[in-house]
Structure formats: C-alpha cells, structure tokens
C-alpha cells in the first residue's frame, strides 16, 4: 500500500462529473490535486474550494488537452506549484454522437483529438516527472463503449478502444520503471454526459444493466484511488466498472 499524503496528481477534466469525483476522492487521501478544466472555470473553482474546505490542497489550471502547448504549460504549472508529479489521470473526454453517415470530418477529429490524441500530449510532457516518482501512476479513463462499440459512436468507441491498446503497450514499456499504467472502463455513469441522452435511451440503458441502475461518479473515483494506493502490482489492466453490463 502506497502512502499518498506526499503525492501530486493531475486530473484532466477534473472540474465536472467523474473527474470532479476523482479530484475530491484523491484529495481526501492527502493527494495534492491539479484540477484541469477547459472552459468552465466556475466548476473548477468549486472543486478546488471543496477540496480546501475538507483540509486538502488543490489548484485549478486551464488547458485544452488536445493542444500540446496548453498541456506543456499545465505540466509546468504543476511542477512550479507542487514541485513534483506522481499521478496522471487522463479523464477529459467529449462525445459527438451521430451515425457514421451523418458524422462530419470535424466530429471525427474533435473526438479523437480530445479523447485519444490528448494522451500523447499529457504523457509525453508528464513522463519525465512521473519517472522521478517512487510510485508513478497513469490512469486512462476509457469506456465500456471502447469494448462493446456503441450505435452512433464510431468516433468515441475508436478513441476509447485506442486508449485500451495504448494502456497495455505503455504499461509494458514502463513496468520496470515503477510506473503503472491502467485503464478504467466505466459503464453508464450519472453525469452530464449521460444526462444529455434522450429519456427513452436512458431508460433502455438502465433496463439492460444487470444491477438495474446507472453508476455514480464516486464509484469510478474509488477505483482510481484503489489503483493509486493499492495498485503496485497492477499494470496494463482494464478495470470494468459497469454494473455487469459487459463481462
Ligand atoms: P463530463 O461531465 O462531460 O465532464 C467532462 C470534463 O472534461 C469536464 O471537466 C470538461 O471541462 C473536461 N474537458 C472536456 N474537453 C476538454 C478539453 N479539450 N481539455 C480539457 N478538459 C476538457 O464528462 P464525464 O461523464 O464526467 O466523463 C469523464 C470521462 O469518463 C470521459 O473521458 C468520458 O468519456 C468517460 N466516460 C464517461 C461515462 C459516463 O457514463 N459518464 C462512461 C464511460 C466513460 P470543461 O467543463 O471546462 O469543458
């Protein structure tokens, strides 16, 4: 078990939904958290205030993860403020769901850039610092859709499946360097991303989940905490948290 009290984490898209739950969960264990956001500064400030009110340390840093210069600045601000980086949670993600025949080139590129190409940006800039840690952790938030596919989600499922392959390959490369690399694959979790779905689709999803409910963001957050704290011998894995929807 790793002592997390002196560790520093970046959570991309840490300002809302699953990312906000991950930020606050890690902070509760003493991790100093960089809450990255793209455009919604108020939500990021709220998460930082929540962490501080509970006695933790956090800062909010704006960066578009699909932009390599923004990401370099995110890592630089982290090191300038906290002096180290031990945990990188690649959580930022977007959807632009359309059947393939209606999908524009822009819909394709935006989703691939934010969900997949972003991890080239974050990891290439963060890796020198993670290698200095005695317990480096990279956690990529993939999705059940990367495993099963999803109607109207060719762009999103390609990105999320890509993250799983990337996780395994990088895990092999970093295994001897005390940096673990894992993917977490949530099923359908009650966040704004899922609330945007038509009611009928949501009801159908809930009916198809063996445990008969949507997941909660803090159920994903606790799995991230587990990988950080207890995951010394866990690398290259996909942790499926989906209520039994995909086994
Ligand atoms: P969400 O509520 O829509 O929050 C998305 C977060 O990502 C926000 O903090 C947003 O920041 C940030 N973000 C978006 N584009 C960004 C960019 N270009 N650069 C930096 N940050 C950016 O989403 P969520 O439901 O919590 O999903 C979080 C992750 O879990 C995503 O990777 C998603 O694919 C994955 N996931 C979700 C579900 C689900 O059921 N919800 C299921 C499986 C996987 P701003 O608000 O500032 O834009």
From TrEMBL:
<dbReference type="InterPro" id="IPR002347">
    <property type="entry name" value="SDR_fam"/>
</dbReference>
<comment type="similarity">
    <text>Belongs to the short-chain dehydrogenases/reductases (SDR) family.</text>
</comment>
<dbReference type="GO" id="GO:0018454">
    <property type="term" value="F:acetoacetyl-CoA reductase activity"/>
</dbReference>
<dbReference type="InterPro" id="IPR036291">
    <property type="entry name" value="NAD(P)-bd_dom_sf"/>
</dbReference>
<dbReference type="InterPro" id="IPR057326">
    <property type="entry name" value="KR_dom"/>
</dbReference>
<feature type="domain" description="Ketoreductase">
    <location>
        <begin position="7"/>
        <end position="191"/>
    </location>
</feature>
<keyword id="KW-0560">Oxidoreductase</keyword>
<dbReference type="InterPro" id="IPR020904">
    <property type="entry name" value="Sc_DH/Rdtase_CS"/>
</dbReference>
<dbReference type="InterPro" id="IPR050259">
    <property type="entry name" value="SDR"/>
</dbReference>
<protein>
    <submittedName>
        <fullName>Acetoacetyl-CoA reductase</fullName>
        <ecNumber>1.1.1.36</ecNumber>
    </submittedName>
</protein>
<dbReference type="Pfam" id="PF00106">
    <property type="entry name" value="adh_short"/>
</dbReference>
<dbReference type="InterPro" id="IPR011283">
    <property type="entry name" value="Acetoacetyl-CoA_reductase"/>
</dbReference>
